[in-house]
From TrEMBL:
<feature type="compositionally biased region" description="Basic and acidic residues">
    <location>
        <begin position="17"/>
        <end position="103"/>
    </location>
</feature>
<dbReference type="Pfam" id="PF08100">
    <property type="entry name" value="Dimerisation"/>
</dbReference>
<keyword id="KW-0808">Transferase</keyword>
<dbReference type="InterPro" id="IPR016461">
    <property type="entry name" value="COMT-like"/>
</dbReference>
<protein>
    <submittedName>
        <fullName>Methyltransferase</fullName>
    </submittedName>
</protein>
<feature type="domain" description="O-methyltransferase dimerisation">
    <location>
        <begin position="111"/>
        <end position="185"/>
    </location>
</feature>
<keyword id="KW-0949">S-adenosyl-L-methionine</keyword>
<dbReference type="GO" id="GO:0032259">
    <property type="term" value="P:methylation"/>
</dbReference>
<dbReference type="GO" id="GO:0008168">
    <property type="term" value="F:methyltransferase activity"/>
</dbReference>
<feature type="region of interest" description="Disordered">
    <location>
        <begin position="1"/>
        <end position="103"/>
    </location>
</feature>
<dbReference type="InterPro" id="IPR001077">
    <property type="entry name" value="COMT_C"/>
</dbReference>
<keyword id="KW-0489">Methyltransferase</keyword>
<dbReference type="Pfam" id="PF00891">
    <property type="entry name" value="Methyltransf_2"/>
</dbReference>
<dbReference type="InterPro" id="IPR036388">
    <property type="entry name" value="WH-like_DNA-bd_sf"/>
</dbReference>
<dbReference type="InterPro" id="IPR029063">
    <property type="entry name" value="SAM-dependent_MTases_sf"/>
</dbReference>
<dbReference type="InterPro" id="IPR036390">
    <property type="entry name" value="WH_DNA-bd_sf"/>
</dbReference>
<dbReference type="InterPro" id="IPR012967">
    <property type="entry name" value="COMT_dimerisation"/>
</dbReference>
Length: 433
């Protein structure tokens, strides 16, 4: 393993996802909103104890499917009241409600089957920088076509679809305007989701296109489509690594809450294993001025991590160490972070890397794992979606709480607690068994 350098400072008050700043209670409230579990507030409170998660799951099980649907319907209506895009969504909703009851299932199939069309329309807008152009004053389809090098008729039809989907406000005659959704597709805003839309619409779209061969062979759709694993592709394709990391950063909204969710006061050195860009590490270091940090990742990630950390953290507070997590994890830390790493590997590999973390952390260290936990009662939405996505792009998986417990136990670790974070992400805290 090789040590690389340290450097200095950006104002993290400007860090993306400021919406998630706030008290932990507020964050929990956000989790409630996302998971639509109106009655689980009590169960969520104080869920540092992993067993409370079980209580929480039991509570969820008590909800009937019908109740869930009713909640969803109520939530949808409530959303309409508060949501600035209600006018657009209302058109969509009105179209649904006009369907006779015996056609609802057909509508459902059409909605699901055309989901990829919606996603690709969103991708096109992001790739063509349409939100940036509208922000710059180009509100007519004629101007947008000229600026994006596309046909005016084509842009007109794309914008009509996107406005109907609630992505833009306005009309062709009045001109189009940004709303909260399209603002997130601008390239120059805090929390921009443009990079995520690009990789989803390009590499990941192609990987999903190979879903059948992947399911049949047990390989990944990514390998079917690109002829190499995602890891090799990111290492060998110019520009692919930064593109992937920028997309990963978009999904790091829960990171802003980690500094508050973890009491680092008893820790001195935090090691971010597979830390990528260093987005999480920089937030943790900024939130805990007494802490030192080590970012550990593959050698090709070091320049990217250096670039980010050099801008975000004071000199001397961190080092970048490169190596292979399956060989050794840097020792000497007393807090180890493992964010969105286990999701990429099968159980045997997870145990191997967890054993290396256990070895590095000594007897008094703690391991903090950020992952999406699949609820066993079908009440989680994003974890099961990402579970299939991970299977198709990396051969990885999302796991249930018992599955995490089992992996940890096989590596000599014990699950201490679980805390829900925004966007259906969880913080699992483990210590030596
Ligand atoms: C999905 S990314 C997660 C990055 C970051 N922790 C986050 O949550 O944004 C997985 C990370 O694991 C790193 N990684 C993959 N294989 C590794 C290995 N064998 N040794 C060390 N790091 C590895 C990748 O380079 C990547 O940065």
């Amino acid at each position: 393993m090789k040590a690389a350098h340290a450097a200095q400072g950006e104002d993290l008050t400007a860090e993306p996802h400021a919406a998630h700043e706030g008290t932990r209670d507020v964050d929990r409230h956000a989790v409630h909103e996302v998971t639509r579990e109106a009655d689980s507030h009590a169960a969520h409170e104080g869920t540092r104890d992993a067993d409370r998660h079980t209580v929480h799951e039991v509570t969820r099980e008590a909800d009937s499917h019908a109740a869930h649907e009713a909640d969803a319907h109520a939530a949808h209506k409530a959303t309409h009241k508060a949501d600035p895009h209600a006018a657009h969504k209302a058109g969509d909703q009105a179209a649904r409600e006009a369907d006779p009851a015996d056609h609802r299932a057909a509508r459902e199939v059409i909605d699901i089957a055309t989901g990829t069309w919606r996603a690709q329309a969103l991708y096109a807008a992001a790739a063509l920088r349409i939100p940036d152009h509208i922000a710059g004053g180009a509100v007519s389809c004629e101007a947008l076509a000229a600026l994006t090098g596309t046909g005016e008729d084509a842009v007109r039809r794309l914008m009509r679809l996107l406005a109907t989907m609630g992505v833009f406000e306005g009309t062709e005659t009045a001109g189009y305007r940004l709303n909260a959704v399209s603002t997130l597709l601008r390239s120059d805003v805090s929390g921009s989701m443009r990079d995520m839309c690009l990789i989803y619409g390009e590499e990941f779209h192609r990987a999903w296109g190979a879903v059948l061969p992947a399911l049949r062979t047990g390989g990944t759709g990514f390998e079917e489509a690109f002829g190499s694993s995602l890891g090799d592709y990111l290492r060998d394709t110019p520009g692919a690594g930064p593109k992937f990391q920028r997309a990963m950063s978009v999904g790091s909204a829960p990171f802003a809450t980690v500094s508050r969710a973890i009491d680092f006061s008893r820790h001195h050195t935090v090691v971010d294993v597979g830390g990528g860009y260093g987005t999480l590490l920089s937030l943790v270091l900024r939130g805990n001025p007494g802490l030192r940090g080590v970012l550990f990742d593959l050698p090709h990630m070091a320049p990217l991590a250096h670039e980010h950390l050099a801008d975000a953290v004071d000199p001397g507070r961190y080092e970048i160490v490169t190596g292979d997590v399956f060989e050794e994890v840097p020792p000497g830390g007393d807090a180890y972070l493992l964010s969105r790493v286990l999701q990429d590997w099968d159980d045997a590999d997870c145990v191997r890397l967890l054993v290396n973390c256990r070895r590095a952390m000594g007897s008094s260290g703690r391991l903090f794992i950020l992952e999406r936990v699949v609820a066993e009662d079908r009440s989680t939405a994003l974890p099961v979606l990402w579970d299939v996505h991970l299977m198709l792009i990396a051969g990885g998986r999302e796991r249930t709480l018992p599955e995490y417990r089992s992996l940890l136990a096989r590596a000599g670790l014990r699950l201490e607690s679980l805390e829900p974070l925004p966007l259906e992400t969880s913080l699992l805290v483990a210590s030596p068994a």
